[in-house]
Amino acid sequence: MTRIQLIQSIRERGSYLCVGLDPDLDKVPAHLLGEEDPIFAFNKEIIDATRDLCVAYKLNTAFYECYGVEGWRALERTVSHIGQDHFLIADAKRGDIGNTSTQYAKAFFERLPFDAVTVAPYMGADSVKPFLAFDGKWAIVLGLTSNPGAADFELQEAGGMPLYERVLSTVSGWGHPDNLMFVVGATQASAFVRIRKLVPDHFLLVPGVGAQGGSLREISEKAANSDLGLLVNVSRGITYAGKGEDFASAARAAAQAYQQEMQPYVDKILRVKIIK
Amino acid sequence: MTRIQLIQSIRERGSYLCVGLDPDLDKVPAHLLGEEDPIFAFNKEIIDATRDLCVAYKLNTAFYECYGVEGWRALERTVSHIGQDHFLIADAKRGDIGNTSTQYAKAFFERLPFDAVTVAPYMGADSVKPFLAFDGKWAIVLGLTSNPGAADFELQEAGGMPLYERVLSTVSGWGHPDNLMFVVGATQASAFVRIRKLVPDHFLLVPGVGAQGGSLREISEKAANSDLGLLVNVSRGITYAGKGEDFASAARAAAQAYQQEMQPYVDKILRVKIIK
């Protein structure tokens, strides 16, 4: 999916919501556990209940790998069920020496139909660039993450600025806003103004709203750019909004609340853009 | 596998060789491509030809994920064939927020029988510590990697020292030499003396010998500690030593050459240790 298509999709759905599909069999409603593939059964109902309210789905590979071959099969079935109308993110946080990163890129971009993979920047250019070499595909590189551990290295001083700022300014030179995004956690709202000076044109993937405590309003006001430029991810706040047989309608209600909060920002930013 | 068991295994086999199993169907000998599971068939012959010459096998997950469910199945069959007598490393370079890192740890330590997972440090403590919470299991954290991209962030100044030194000194406080190792590339030999001051007791996993140009002699002389403290990985230099039907015996010959170069260091360091 191209940047223009993504922006068009945000405008049409009045939403920059990304739904995180991180299924955990300990939390999946009991009535699904008898299904042949309970992970897929769970995802399918969440997808069908939220499809018109979001523009992206993000699958964290950890929640599939922990079920081995069955988990990997559930991941394949899930992305196939989502189809081509959503921006598909493999939240895999990969990154390795060049020839190995190419194998990861093939795994997610060729073997599977993902639009984007999240990438860890620690190993530098040859670990990131292979993900930028596939037409119409994206690398989403970790900038400043939403977890407490961000303080250990990302926020440490590195040559006169925090390490994550060095990452944003260095990595943004390896790609362009049509094939490169950055992860910035919603819990880091105070940093968004500075971040937008470093990467004014790139989309940001923003996790940490909901269970981790980030504010959708604060992000939208501080971090949107003239393309909107945000994908705000909510995982547990949507998928586990309900715990019983009505979990899908509870998920829809939660997603709808986010979409409704997003609509005015979309109207304001992208309607102005059309008029221009 | 415990540290004592690993050292015992190094002593018995006169080897600190780790064989990297990164199968690529474009490089697997043609006569295996007709097998039902050519990746496993390839790995099985390599394992059977090198089992007595190495103490560890390292599987880079990228080379399995790129074949989807079939690749993941080949990975499961491979680790099952290796069994319990070798230190089993999932070279996965994972790392995510706490609850997600726990899912990755379960994937490799519970669902699969790996002894160790390689972990990227960028996201800090809560992304690394979950891998240290499993009895008898190990995190192998990226320190200074063997690729050119190491210059982009790892070698950049961070608070008065290169970032990778900050990673070594910070992360070593999160675990201990019985559950934590570090990756240090063989191409970075000039840094080994300094590294051993920061982490004198930890095992180092050293990739980059062979195809990437690192010297086994230089590593052994500069980076061994009184436990030996090294796992030197060779992937392509062994698995693709031969390209025809005799690939397994070519792999054995290559592994044997490494083992024979290692034997004197093992004799010197671990024999002295017994006498003590």
TrEMBL record, chains A, B:
GO terms for molecular function: orotidine-5'-phosphate decarboxylase activity. Gene3D superfamilies: Aldolase class I (3.20.20.70). It comes from the Bacteria. Keywords: Decarboxylase, Lyase, Pyrimidine biosynthesis. GO terms for biological process: 'de novo' pyrimidine nucleobase biosynthetic process; 'de novo' UMP biosynthetic process. Residues 16-251 form the Orotidine 5'-phosphate decarboxylase domain. Its EC number is 4.1.1.23. It catalyses: orotidine 5'-phosphate + H(+) = UMP + CO2. It holds the Pfam family OMPdecase. This is Orotidine-5'-phosphate decarboxylase.
